[in-house]
Amino acid sequence: MSIWGNVSFQNSASFTMEQMTFFYDFSFLIILLILVFVVYMMVYLVFESLIKCYDLDNQTMESFWTVLPLVILIFLAFPSIRILYLMDEMKNPIMTCKVLGHQWFWSYEYSDFSSFEFDSYMVYSLMRLLEVDNCFVIPLGLKVRLLVSSVDVLHSWTVPAFGVKVDSVPGRLNQLNFTVNRLGVYFGQCSEICGVNHSFMPIMVEVVLNQGFSVWVENSS
């Protein structure tokens, strides 16, 4: 989870978030190199007392700074497109869960088993604006498909550690998939302004082992 003073991403808990973090680091390195080069050239031109004539009209240099940005954009585009396709791939999900946004709480439904559902309200505790009475439970290492909608206004189901954010739109069913590879409890928030209590509908996800998930399903049904 996010901690005070943290300026980086949360620890990745899914393959998707790991790939997004790697891409961010890769892009940041390229942008940093570009920044250093541009600053160097600006300083060089400012303090150079005599600018050589070939610096003002040089076909080779013009070709270089025309082709180089294209190459850089290609290097950035390919991993970005790959991650986008990974996020949208819905091949063979192990389980499907439904999420409905309300003003101002979430409701979850497990329809792959004996079809049970529950509501998730924020409770007052030491975990300010994060803890709920009934958390969303999923198994470790299994591909989960999430069907997300709303019964009133726009919401957005977001868990940063999973790298997922999907809009909850009335009358529309959006879907996403993710696979969590770390045990633990993860938190998120509604990320779409949905009314006066928008800040009071947190998301709490507990990732458990498969055996523990089976026991939880039996006890909750």
From TrEMBL:
GO BP of this protein: ATP synthesis coupled electron transport
The Cytochrome oxidase subunit II copper A binding domain, residue ranges: 92-219
Alphabetical keyword list: Copper, Electron transport, Magnesium, Membrane, Metal-binding, Mitochondrion, Mitochondrion inner membrane, Respiratory chain, Translocase, Transmembrane, Transmembrane helix, Transport
Gene3D superfamilies referenced in this protein's UniProt entry, alphabetically: 1.10.287.90, Cupredoxins - blue copper proteins
UniProt KW 4Fe-4S keyword: no
Cofactor(s) in the UniProt record: Cu cation
Stretches assigned to the Cytochrome oxidase subunit II transmembrane region profile domain: 1-91
General function of this protein: Component of the cytochrome c oxidase, the last enzyme in the mitochondrial electron transport chain which drives oxidative phosphorylation. The respiratory chain contains 3 multisubunit complexes succinate dehydrogenase (complex II, CII), ubiquinol-cytochrome c oxidoreductase (cytochrome b-c1 complex, complex III, CIII) and cytochrome c oxidase (complex IV, CIV), that cooperate to transfer electrons derived from NADH and succinate to molecular oxygen, creating an electrochemical gradient over the inner membrane that drives transmembrane transport and the ATP synthase.
Subunit relationships: Component of the cytochrome c oxidase (complex IV, CIV), a multisubunit enzyme composed of a catalytic core of 3 subunits and several supernumerary subunits. The complex exists as a monomer or a dimer and forms supercomplexes (SCs) in the inner mitochondrial membrane with ubiquinol-cytochrome c oxidoreductase (cytochrome b-c1 complex, complex III, CIII).
PANTHER family: CYTOCHROME C OXIDASE SUBUNIT 2, CYTOCHROME C OXIDASE, SUBUNIT II
Similarity comment: Belongs to the cytochrome c oxidase subunit 2 family.
Protein name, UniProt field: Cytochrome c oxidase subunit 2
Organism: Bemisia tabaci
Lineage start: Eukaryota, Metazoa, Ecdysozoa, Arthropoda, Hexapoda
